[in-house]
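Hi V.,

You were right to ask for the full record rather than a summary. Here it is.
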Amino acid sequence: MINYFEIVRAGINTTFQDNGRKKLFHIGIPLSGAMDQRNFRLANSIVGNKVNNPVIEFAYQGPVIRYRGDKINFVITGDVIFKITKGKKEIQGNSYESYSIEDGDEIDIISTNKSVYGYLAINGEFNLKLQWGSCSTNTKAIIGSNNGEKFKDGQKFEIKKINLNQIGKKIDYINTKIEKIRVIKGTNFNYFSDQSKKIFFEKEFTVSKLTDRMGMRLEGPKIENIVNTNIKSEGLVKGVIQVPADGNPIIMLSDHGTIGGYPKIGVVISADYDKLVQLSPGSKIKFQEINLSDAETLFKLYEMETQNLISQL
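Predicted structure:
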């Protein structure tokens, strides 16, 4: 029997993602990969996969999926509302808990709950073509699995392997909001007036509707540049905060371009990135400055916390 997922409803922004593409910035290929790395890793861990196994990432409203094939386990991570239909029986699903499905069962990922991204992993492997060693889909660059495109209604995705371990597992985890997004100073921090630096760290910004996997645009008090609103294009990293001429900061996210010519006021620390990307349009952001040493310590603690969650399994 061929095992596969049939996409009844594709959802708003559903793609395949893994850990992304490394060491390709020099040819203009961004990292991409799952936006929320912790929830990506937890999804694979709960169903017993290797940590970098491709998963389905969805945003806001997820897909409706009809399963065809032998019994399989799946899990959904993130703050997600979903249900499973088995014949005439409906089961309200819980995130971070694995469920078994059989031929003809359906998964309806209704929505993320006051957040953006969620993840679906199966205890097996999708039959996907990799590009530069990764399945990660970047729809702007049209690279990755599924021809670099989002899911479409009616598509079928074959599952080439199902792991034998089908023991149901779950972890206790609640996605929490963060009060302030911590940043270190950017390379062009001194391009901005003292008043603007004070505004940046003391005032509140709002996540704009003009936000996607490439970048998060913020609205709020304008950040004044007193040197030059443009610089020679140079390398960008995930989480860097650029300020264009209009004074509204833009945070570079996973599908960001590899170079940019706007001055950089700060960089979101790695430990806060997963929570940052889960802020939906209309959410409020305040920034807090920390130094590099503290940022490194916080990342180590974040990694330890993730490993402790996985060790529950």
